Amino acid sequence: MKAYLKNTGGLTFIAKGDSNHYLVLDTVPAVGGSDAASQPMELMLISLGGCTGMDVVSILKKKRVNFDSLEINVNGERSAEHPKVFNRIEVEFVVRGDNVPPNAVERSIFLSATRYCPASAMLRKAAKIEYKYKILNRIGKEITSKVLDLGL
After folding, report:
1. What does the pLDDT read at residue 152?
2. Which residues have C-beta within 8 Å of that of residue 93, sequence separation ≥ 6?
3. Can you say how many angstroms the Cα of residue 130 is from the centroid of all Cα atoms in its chain?
4. Is the overall model pTM greater than 0.90, yes or no?
5. Is residue 135 classed exposed, middle or buried when 0-12, 13-18 and 19+ CB atoms within 10 A define those classes?
6. What is the pLDDT of residues 41-91, one digit of tens each?
7. Structural contact between residues 7 and 13, judged by C-beta atoms closer than 8 angstroms
8. With the CA atoms of 44, 125, 131 and 76 taken in that order, what torsion angle do they form, in degrees rounded to the nearest 10?
9. Given a cut of 90, is residue 151 above it in pLDDT?
10. Alpha-carbon span 57 to 26, nearest angstrom
């Protein structure tokens, strides 16, 4: 796997990986950017959310769990000193649907976090990652929520 990046001026870059899809990166004006695109550290959180989200959807579908939607909120706290790595990350899954079994959601998150998601495995080496979920029915009423203790 490889990536190619090209500076287009200031701190803006265009990038593409093996999939040949382009992505733009930038940063805030306070450090020389023009705030025209996502920042690299944001993309790390997005990558974690996408990686674990794809796992959870795939596992739930294999378990034949019917759900209407899945949203993932990822929040990261960074150290105050450079290199300002993430030291804590919270991943919240919001599953919407009637009759979604909590044990299937928990098992799917567990498998993603401990076995399948390489983004999670990499980031876990630097940051404590907390996983939690909420299940809402179709009209948005909360059915259950839980912070998971995955033993990581």
Report:
1. 76
2. 53, 56, 70, 71, 72, 105, 109, 131, 132, 133, 134
3. 12
4. yes
5. buried
6. 999 999 999 999 999 999 999 999 999 999 999 999 999 999 999 999 999
7. yes
8. -40
9. no
10. 30
